[in-house]
């Protein structure tokens, strides 16, 4: 069966450190992968998209890697700040079916 | 400002009632989506529409219905056939030439 797995345990990290989140998938052939941020009671906000032929993407303090052999994406927040505290969702897009499927999300808590 | 508006923010439904959740966008996006989110879980796709007057079932369409009579609007009806409707409902839109999805702020539906 198809699965998108993100660590369901919250990630507690000290301000200034790098937070690394993992998104693993099985039985998907995604054309691209996206990462979103979601604050409590709000809709997700798009952060980054990485295509199947790209290894790495950066945006300010964010970095995403995509390894289609390992079927894994890593999401890094460098120099983390308390304002980065939120839930981060990964999502896969498959051309077959033409839809975006989300993982369960990982909550990040950055302590001052 | 362009965006996507969901209303109401909170909705209470009695057993056996149908309720309709509103979703309007002024982003000129072609595609619109409805997702359901349960506590501590990711988003699950209910219905989506790529073009006016056409829509497809997502992964959990049973007990829901939609219409797409205008490009800007994609209302979701939660029918009495939906046995466990209490959840956070998110509407999203997407330009087929764009990157990430744009989400509304959500409607929290509670059965009383």
What do these coordinates show?
The complex is a heterodimer of chains A (112) and B (112). Chain A is mostly beta strands. Helices cover 0% and strands 58% of the residues of chain A. In chain A, a hairpin with a 6-residue loop joins β4 and β5 (45-51). The model of chain A has no long low-confidence stretch (mean pLDDT 93). In chain B, the strands form 2 sheets. In chain B, strands 2, 4, 5, 6, 9, 10 and 11 form a 7-stranded mixed sheet that branches. A 4-stranded antiparallel sheet of chain B has the order 1-3-8-7, with no helix packed on it. In chain B, β4 (31-37) and β5 (43-51) form a beta hairpin. Chain B is built from no helices and 11 strands. With 112 residues, chain B is mostly beta strands. Chains A and B meet through β5 and β10 of A and β5, β9 and β10 of B.
In short:
The complex is a heterodimer of chains A (112) and B (112). By secondary structure, chain A is an all-beta fold.
Blueprint of the fold:
The complex is a heterodimer of chains A (112) and B (112).
Chain A: E1 3-6, E2 11-14, E3 19-26, E4 32-38, E5 45-51, E6 56-59, E7 62-67, E8 72-77, E9 86-94, E10 99-102, E11 106-111
Parallel strand pairs in A: 2-11
Antiparallel strand pairs in A: 1-3, 3-8, 4-5, 4-9, 6-7, 7-8, 9-10, 9-11
Chain B: E1 4-7, E2 10-13, E3 19-25, E4 31-37, E5 43-51, E6 54-57, E7 64-66, E8 76-78, E9 87-94, E10 102-103, E11 107-111
Parallel strand pairs in B: 2-11
Antiparallel strand pairs in B: 1-3, 3-8, 4-5, 4-9, 5-6, 7-8, 9-10, 9-11
Task: Bin the strand percentage of chain B.
Answer: over 45%
Outline the biggest β-sheet of chain A.
Answer: 6 strands, mixed
Oligomer state equals: heterodimer
Helix content of chain A: under 10%
Describe the biggest sheet of chain B? 7 strands, mixed
Strands of chain A, total number: 11
How many strands appear in the DSSP assignment of chain B? 11
User: What is the averaged pLDDT score of chain A?
Assistant: 93
Unreliable sequence segments of chain A: none
What structural class do you assign from the helix and strand content of chain A?
mainly beta
Q: Kindly report the greatest chain-chain contact and the residue count on each side.
A: A-B, 23 and 24 residues
Give me the number of helical elements of chain A.
Answer: 0
What sort of overall outline of chain B do the alpha carbons produce when their principal axes are compared? globular
Question: Tell me, what's the shape of chain A?
Answer: globular
């Amino acid at each position: 069966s198809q699965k998108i797995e993100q660590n369901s345990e919250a990630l507690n990290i000290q301000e200034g450190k790098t937070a690394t989140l993992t998104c693993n998938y099985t039985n998907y052939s995604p054309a691209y992968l996206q990462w979103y941020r979601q604050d409590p009671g709000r809709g997700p906000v798009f952060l980054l998209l990485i295509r199947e032929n790209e290894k790495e993407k950066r945006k300010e303090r964010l970095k995403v890697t995509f390894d289609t052999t390992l079927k894994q994406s890593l999401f890094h927040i460098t120099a983390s700040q308390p304002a980065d505290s939120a839930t981060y969702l990964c999502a896969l897009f498959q051309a077959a079916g033409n839809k975006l499927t989300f993982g369960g999300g990982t909550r990040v808590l950055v302590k001052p | 400002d362009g965006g996507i508006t969901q209303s109401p923010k909170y909705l209470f439904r009695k057993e056996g009632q149908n309720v309709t959740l509103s979703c309007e966008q002024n982003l000129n996006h072609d595609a619109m989506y409805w997702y359901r989110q349960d506590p501590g879980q990711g988003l699950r796709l209910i219905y989506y529409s790529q073009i006016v007057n056409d829509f497809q079932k997502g992964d959990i369409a049973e007990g829901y219905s939609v219409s797409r009579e205008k490009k800007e609007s994609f209302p979701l009806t939660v029918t009495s056939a939906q046995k466990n409707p209490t959840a956070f409902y998110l509407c999203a839109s997407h330009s087929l030439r764009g990157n990430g999805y744009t989400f509304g702020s959500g409607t929290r539906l509670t059965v009383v």
